[in-house]
Write a structure and sequence with these properties.
single chain; mainly alpha; Helix Hairpins; 3 helices; elongated
Length: 69
């Protein structure tokens, strides 16, 4: 998911999306440990998507703090 797409989501939608991504990452890790999945690319990509999401969430927080002054 691209940062621009994430910026269009509301803070509540971002929280829901983060929860979904973390659950998916947990499932991928479990599959990888069990030998069912060989796709490290998916795991790495998901980790980067979570980092992007957290960055955008922080941008939203800073904007709301700065706007509140």
């Amino acid at each position: 998911m691209k940062a621009e797409e994430l910026r269009q989501l509301s803070p509540d939608e971002l929280r829901v999306k983060e929860k979904e991504m973390r659950e998916q990452m947990s499932r991928l890790r479990f599959q990888l440990a069990a030998g069912q999945s060989e796709s490290l690319k998916k795991l790495r990509g998901l980790r980067r998507d979570i980092a992007r999401l957290l960055s955008v969430r922080r941008e939203h927080e800073l904007r709301s703090q700065h706007g509140g002054e």
